[in-house]
Design brief:
Layout (H helix, E strand, L loop, with lengths): L3 H20 L6 E9 L2 H6 L5 H11 L5 E7 L3 E9 L2 H10 L12 H8 L9 E9 L11 H26 L2 E7 L5 H9 L5 E4 L5 H12 L4 E3 L5 E4 L3 E9 L7 E3 L5 E2 L8 E5 L3 E7 L4 E6 L7 E6 L1 E5 L5 E3 L7 E9 L2 E2 L3 H4 L3 E8 L2 E10 L6 E5 L6 E10 L4 E11 L2 E6 L9 E6 L9 E7 L2 E3 L2 E4 L2 E5 L9 E11 L2 E6 L3 E3 L44 H41 L1
Parallel strand pairs: 1-2, 1-4, 4-5, 5-6, 17-24
Antiparallel strand pairs: 2-3, 7-15, 8-14, 9-13, 9-15, 10-11, 10-14, 12-13, 16-18, 18-19, 18-22, 20-21, 20-23, 21-22, 23-24, 25-26, 26-30, 27-28, 27-31, 29-30, 31-32, 31-33
Length: about 600
Amino acid sequence: MIQPGKQFSHVAPLLWLICLLWLLPVQALALDVRFVVDISERINQSDPDQLRAPTTRLLADLLPERAHAGVWTFAAQPHPLVRHGVVNTAWRAEVRQASIHMDSQAHRTDIEAALVAATWDRQQASNRARHVILLSDGLLDVSSAEDQNRRIADNDASRSRILRRLVPELAEAGFVIHTLTLSDLSDPDLMATLALRTGGQHVVAETADELMPRLMQLLNRILPSHEEVPLENDRFLIDELVDEFTALIFHAPGAEVILQSPEGQQLTAETSAQAQRWHQGSHYALVTVNQPAPGQWLILADQPAGHRVTVISDLRLHTSDWPTVVYRGVGSGSFAMQAWFTEAGQVVDRRPLLSILQASVSALRDEERLDAWLLDLQPQGYRYEARLGPFSQLGDQQLYVEIDGHTFRRQRVMAFQVMDIVGASLQQSEAIGLPPRLILRAQHPEVRPNELRFEIQANDETLSASYQGEGEWRVELNDLSRAFDQHLSVTLRGVFQGRPVVLTLPELILPGEERRLDSETLPDFVTPIDTSLVQTAETLPGWLDPLTDWNDPRIPTLLAGVAGFNFLLLLIAWWRFRRFVKRWVVQRGATKAARG
């Protein structure tokens, strides 16, 4: 028989273990990022300065230690540029070295093969949060066939396999695909659908210069949440509770970056002290300062936008979750947002302090403020809250939650997109010899295709859409005249979530072909003008430039010339008048003599 004391001695260790497990924080899944970069000849034309290379290095520098990551490049075939492994100093050095060789002249673009290669372990269970960042224009070009119809069929087959087989497989395995589209001559529907159906983010860089800022938007969703301090005119406030800050500063190649302390001391990569860590890239600098002096800091760089400063502090700002996608005109159109503070892990509930803080939320697209709201302190409790919305501006945006305590400031940034329940996009495949299309895509998961119909106009011509399955409608545009721009308007009518819906989608423009006369199209009897023999306005002497201002230094000379010319005219007129009078007097005297 077990004695009561002995029985408790066996149970006590188990109770202590249960208590310890209860007190341990829930650990987030380890991070696993695969970066897949298009290096085809076509995208090289959109990125002639190879800014994809510093963008790759920026990603490597911002990934946290002990995360897993790898880099693949692809054109006709995928290639593992940097091994998939643990992120550390050696791995980052490998990225910096390998990214120098990211150029290619390959003609094909096989996104399907690239995704398959980067997700080789999709059939295996994983305890890591697996993310794929795909950088491409999204324009499939997998076929080497000479026949155009065969090329169309091959590319359509690959596209169908991606959307109908590979994407559901990746979503089931827990992969989240984020897409970074470079160039507007692309297939935005494919890139956006890859992200939408796996819970990822889709952003567009219209020029290569936007690659790094757009990557930062994606990283706001992927990386562990970091607390920031707001920047105003490149100034930021550091308070006494901040133990460390890291500034990400963008700059032009070769430009110097200076960080000015509150005391006016100017810090650079060459003058950095032991408490500072500088990493100077070709287009950005990462600066970490331990135990920074409190007060206003200043960033001195040639690029005035895109910088950010993250802080490590006992005082932390928390916010409620925010959706990746917000749908325009769906439901009430408003969303709850809450914010609160913790200090040393404990909730800050001192209402006298909380009541004097200013809490606000802003929705921005690049540097443009689209909407703003105030967060009010709850009548009872320690949270600030507001209802945000409705969101009427489509596209990718960022939500800034900011608390201003006068002597300290904190903010959190969350990237999201505003979409319609059905999206319209142009598939401009003419760059690879394929006819253009209009793609209509169900973007909300509750869309029922049989409950919707479309009214489609191309200028004054009515078009019809054919349903392809899997929430996709297609309109072939190859029969439209290309002598001028075609303005495409789409109106959706039907039923959504049991209610009638009428939605006008943003207008799209299919550009007309450029028509110009050159020596190859001119008739034989016409000889083109040799423009090298024509003196243009840029080569004319400076004194022949037109006068645009009364303060021009040539005005006095011009007035003197005009006066001199007028005086000369008067002298000539006086001289001719005297000759006329003289002749008249002589003729009159001769006439009198003849009469006498």
